[in-house]
């Protein structure tokens, strides 16, 4: 999933923002990969603890992580 997200974001930046996209691609890809990683952490821990996986929790985790990820990618 991370590789697919990376390729989609990189391709979109190259097409729609050819010059600016080169600068912003790394933080955007980092943010998506960070979000996917946080969801996988949630999923694995839910399976280990035998708890129900909630779709709204997954969406909230991804949204929050996707916003935090690019800032961490820039630093």
Describe this structure in words.
Helix content is 84%, strand content 0%. By secondary structure, the chain is mostly helical.
Instruction: Note the beta-strand portion.
Output: under 5%
Following the backbone from N to C, one meets helices and strands in this order, namely HHH
| Helix percentage range | over 70%
Structural class: mainly alpha
| Mean pLDDT figure | 78
Globally, the shape reads elongated
User: For the report, how would you describe the main beta sheet?
Assistant: none
- How many E strands? 0
**What is Rg?**
14 Å
**Number of helical stretches of at least 4 residues:** 3
Distance separating the two termini: 24 Å
Low-pLDDT residue intervals, each spanning 5 or more residues: none
Secondary-structure topology with pairs:
Blueprint: H1 2-16, H2 21-48, H3 55-74
Helix pairs in contact: 1-2, 2-3
Give the structure's gist in a few sentences.
The chain is mainly α and 75 residues long. The chain has helices at 2-16, 21-48, 55-74.
Question: What labels describe this entry?
Answer:
mainly alpha; 75 residues
